[in-house]
Each structure stands twice: as structure tokens, then as C-alpha cells.
Amino acid sequence: MPYSNVIQIVNKLHTIWKQTYIVGGYCRDSILELQLDWDIDLATNALPEEIEDSLKTIAHIGKKYGTSIINEWNEYYEITTFRKDIWSINNRKPAEVEFTDKLEEDAKRRDFTMNAIYYNPIKSEYIDPTWGIKDLENWIIRFIWNKEDRIDEDALRILRYIRFKNKYNLEAAKNTYTDTLKRKIHLLQNISIERIKDELDKILLLENNIQALKDLKEIWFFTLFLTEIEALENTPGSKYHQEWNVWIHTLMTLKYLNWLRKKSKKDASYFLDLYWAMLFHDIAKTECLSTDSDWNVHYYGHENSGSEIFRSKIAQELRFSTSSKNRISWIIENHLKVFKVMEMKKLKSRKLMMHKYFTDLMIIWESDHMWRIPATIDVVDRLKEFYSDFQEILSKKTFFTGKDIMKKYPHLQWIAIWNKLREENDKILISD
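RESULT FIELD:
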């Protein structure tokens, strides 16, 4: 059990007269009586060299910053020496670090009071120099001391504030926080895009992600990053949608996706690309907006334009992995085709349903469809039945391989082999 290992680690450092505490998420979740994930971070007054001498250290995350990864009894832990951050470079990281023997000094350099709660596993007691326990009990999120200084030290704390606020459904300690975040939002331009993307991933996977996205919009995040999202509020809905504008529609589809995720047995990480695809599925409606002679709104071609915007711009700016870029862009490009899959010609329909991302497409389509006019669960059920019937048909088919074609048509060479392979397998695919 990881907790017993922690006690062993604490005892090892205690033999050299050093104190070690659990800090961070474990303390927050314990106090709020939430399920613990056993991702335990440690803080100590032992110096990095002393940690290395006493514990099985496998890596340092910047040794001068005092953070090490240790492996004790086949469990990995992050342990950081108490420190004082002197100042920061470009609102990103400390330019200089001074180690300290005092827990109170270490607490001062942290972001929020709830992240400066220390737990002594030997004495089974909390040490709370910034009154974080009281804030948690009152469901409050509070920057430690001067909020402006904390953000200036690391502007990523703007996004961490949004994430923690909505993860635990907390209220701001002061009503000036939103104005401060608006005024400081430009500092995020100094932060590496990888760190920003990592925070956005975590925000999208929150149960309360809808409010988190609203909070991001309120502090002008989308005017700085992902301007296509910001424009959706001023893009009107069409006669097929209940919502006043595309921004509201997008939030409602994400809300339904949350419900589908709860029903699913899939790991949360499976849904991350789907959340991004849902967020971006209508991003081109702004530029594709048109009206006919009766003033009906149309967005012809927005699925293709949206896929291109994501692939050529957003995926590059946020540095999505190649696999995520391909998955998300394909979903955006094809999210309208699901409406017609039961009406398509057999070959086209079945090829679409054989695509490796088609089940993802069905999830996105259902989330989108349930906010259309008319929206009926009957249509969703019929599509699922249609797809299930095809899967049963497909399970009984045997397709040719390249070797089969070369044996059957020995006179064919190169591209002709693959053309014949596709031709023969297409015949098999449409046969019943």
C-alpha cells in the first residue's frame, strides 16, 4: 500500500534528522473526504544531495529547484526540498531558488492556501500555516498572500485557479479575483504552450468542465488563445438548433458528452480527444455563415473548413500529437455524415462504418443531435441498431489479402495489385 511506503520514506529521512510531509492533492482530498488516488507528493527539509544519499533517486526535475523522483518499494514519488523562490523569469519559473529549513517559508511560495497544507504521517496531524483547511471547509479558493505576486511568479496559476475552482466547486475568496485574472491574462503568453495545453486537458476532463469553460471566457482567455472559440458567441444559431448562438450550443453538446462519458466504462483519457473535437466541431460556422432570401441561417461547408482550421492552425499552436490531430480533425470533418449514413449507398455507408474512428463519430453525433430540432432518441437508437447489424454482417466476412490477389492474378504488378485488392474487397463488403 503506498501510504505505508510513505511512512518508511519519512522514517528513512528522520534517521538523518530531517522532517518529511505529504503535501498537495492528497491533503486536499483527505480533508474534503474525497476518493484518494494515491498520487502522493512529498516535501522535506532534506537537501537534494541528502535525499539522493538516503533514498533510491531515479531522476531530478531540475536539481537546482530541489525536486526529485524516488522509487521506493516499486512505488514512485515526487519529493521536493523546502525552498524560497527569489524571483521569476518571464512569469514562468524561478530564476533563483534558495533552500530553507522552515516549512513556513516553503508554504509562502505556493499558489493557493489549500496547496500549502502539510500532513505528518507519523503523528497523523496537519500543519496549516496559511489556514488552507479553514478555506476548504468553507469551500473557498484563496491565493496565498498577494494574488498579483503569485500570478507574476507563475502565470500558469491563472489556469490552475480555474481548474481547482471547478474541480472542487469552490468560490473565490475575494470578488476581485476575476478582474485581476483579466488584467494578468496576457502573462500566459510567456508560458510554454505545452504547460497551457496540459492544464486545458485537465480542465476539459473535469466533471464541472462547462462552468470552467465559462470562467475561461469570462477572464478573456479565448481572446488571447483559441480566438475561434471566442467568436462563437456572436455566431447565431440556425433553425435546427434550440440555442441562441453557437457558443451555447457547443456548451450544451459538451454537457451531453459528459453524460455519455458517465455511462461509458471507458477510461477518462479515451474521451479527451472527443472533448476537443466537440469543442471545435463548429468553429468554422463563423466564417461559413450565410443567410438565404428568407433570412434562414446556413453554414455550408463548415465541417470541412473546421477540420482544416484545426489541422493547420489550432493543432499546430497547441501542439497536439499526430494521433490526436488525425483523430480530432477526422471527427470534425465527418460529424455531419452520420446523419446520412443510413441513407448512403451501401459501399459508402459500410466503408464509413469500418473507419477506426466511427464509434467516436457516433458519440459526437449523438451529443450534437440531442440539441437539434427535432431531436429524438429514436433516431439515435436506429443508428445504433443499424451499426450493430453491420458489425454482425462484417464478422461473417473474410477479405482478400495482398498475397491472395498476387496468387489469383499473377500477371498483376505494383499498383494494379492494390487496385484489384480494393475492387475484390469492395465486392465482398457489399455482398450479403
